[in-house]
């Protein structure tokens, strides 16, 4: 994968092998033993991870989890393993069900963690009662996290303040800087940041340590028991309602039986009153974060990037509309007949499914074929619907800008300028972005499968919560 900010390639295999050897020597030195087993694990887009079994000199077995951040060019982004280590130190004595940090490498970006049993694929569960029990346990952990004393907690990129608003403003600043670092203008992202800056809530309660990516997929479970809260990369001091917004976002991909009941469980465990307006505000902020991540293009899987971009841009528009109290009617569906190349796409897709995947034995090759299928489905949709989508966006630009547009690229540039100058109302902007993201969704629909039409789950605040 090449980093989108400068096009530099990843380090070579020899360099990675040398780093891995140094890391494994470090682990063996910590325990005074030998590594008996090291299995690569999923570590995200920019990290390598291993499940490691160590046999100490006295014969005692140890199970650990090693994470190593791949080298990357200098960036304004503060979310590093060094910062994650700061988070783990802050919660070490909180009594959370979370992997303990065992050691931080003195020179390399690497953490040695306790290995916690369980799986993260919440979508695998089919029993609603089991899902509800685990979700309630997660909410209890979230409440415990939000009770951590943040006095003296210092995280890279953070600020020191007793007010939630200052921490939220700092968080917006981080993500705006990460967006601007790309030097690629995007009207929707800039509209979202302007809306966020204009509508920051200012509650009187003190800030908390927020997980920053809370919800299904970021906790482990066995049976009906939650075993560990994971993925602390984006943790920061801020608003407790933000983690509830994250929970509702992650429920888009991995639904819980009753979002309102889960939020009520948090209220009972934490003793906090829920603030619907703040949850809706933070839905915009968490959606904007995810869209910025996709804008920075830090993934090596183009099929997944296509699906994620279409879904999360649509979720961002939905979030701003709901937080603004603006009702946006779904745009009219676009239609177009199949092209002469449709059968050719279909033949290749059938071969990928029925030959490459069905007869494959290498998991990596199968995953690559499935990703390629998503890309081909997207290209087939572009071939069929692309001209109609481009024409519809141009018409939408003309409607919001009040003048004819020769092409979409120039029109998007003019829209960005108009939004920055306050010349376009929130409602008019949302109408345009709803049409634009509907076009993106149409192109990505076949590649997206069952999530193509998903949106933020509705929720209600129970009386007394």
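Sequence proposed for the structure above (465 residues):
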């Amino acid at each position: 994968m090449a980093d989108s900010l400068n096009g530099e390639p990843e380090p070579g295999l020899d360099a990675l092998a040398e780093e891995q050897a140094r890391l494994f020597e470090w682990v063996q030195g910590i325990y005074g033993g030998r590594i008996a087993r090291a299995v690569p694990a999923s570590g995200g887009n920019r990290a390598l991870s291993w499940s490691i079994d160590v046999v100490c000199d006295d014969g005692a077995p140890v199970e650990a989890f090693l994470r190593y951040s791949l080298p990357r060019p200098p960036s304004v982004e503060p979310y590093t393993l060094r910062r994650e280590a700061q988070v783990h130190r802050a919660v070490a004595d909180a009594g959370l069900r979370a992997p303990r940090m065992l050691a931080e490498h003195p020179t390399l970006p690497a953490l040695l963690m306790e290995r916690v049993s369980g799986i993260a694929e919440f979508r695998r569960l089919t029993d609603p009662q089991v899902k509800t029990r685990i979700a309630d346990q997660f909410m209890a952990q979230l409440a415990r996290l939000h009770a951590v004393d943040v006095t003296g907690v210092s995280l890279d990129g953070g600020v020191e303040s007793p007010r939630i608003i200052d921490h939220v403003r700092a968080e917006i600043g981080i993500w705006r800087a990460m967006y601007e670092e790309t030097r690629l203008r995007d009207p929707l992202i800039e509209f979202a940041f302007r809306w966020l800056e204009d509508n920051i809530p200012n509650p009187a309660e003190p800030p908390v340590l927020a997980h920053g990516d809370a919800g299904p997929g970021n906790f482990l479970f066995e049976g009906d028991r939650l075993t560990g809260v994971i993925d602390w990369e984006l943790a920061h001091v801020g608003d407790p309602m933000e983690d509830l917004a994250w929970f509702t976002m992650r429920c888009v991909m991995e639904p819980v039986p009753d979002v309102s009941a889960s939020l009520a469980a948090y209220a009972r465990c934490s003793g906090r009153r829920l603030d619907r307006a703040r949850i809706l505000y933070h839905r915009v902020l968490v959606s904007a974060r995810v869209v910025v991540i996709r804008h920075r293009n830090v993934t090596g899987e183009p099929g997944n990037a296509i699906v994620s971009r279409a879904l999360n841009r649509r979720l961002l528009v939905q979030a701003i509309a709901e937080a603004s109290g603006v009702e946006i009617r779904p745009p009219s569906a676009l239609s177009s007949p199949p092209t002469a190349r449709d059968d050719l796409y279909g033949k290749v897709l059938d071969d990928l499914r029925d030959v490459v995947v069905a007869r494959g034995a290498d998991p990596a090759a199968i995953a690559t074929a499935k990703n390629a299928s998503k890309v081909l489905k997207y290209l087939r949709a572009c071939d069929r619907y692309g001209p109609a989508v481009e024409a519809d966006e141009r018409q939408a630009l003309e409607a919001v800008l009040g003048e004819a547009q020769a092409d979409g690229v120039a029109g998007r540039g003019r829209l960005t300028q108009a939004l920055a100058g306050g010349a376009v109302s929130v409602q008019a902007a949302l109408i345009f972005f709803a049409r634009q993201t509907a076009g993106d969704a149409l192109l990505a629909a076949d590649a997206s499968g069952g999530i193509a039409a998903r949106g933020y789950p509705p929720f209600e605040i129970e009386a007394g919560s």
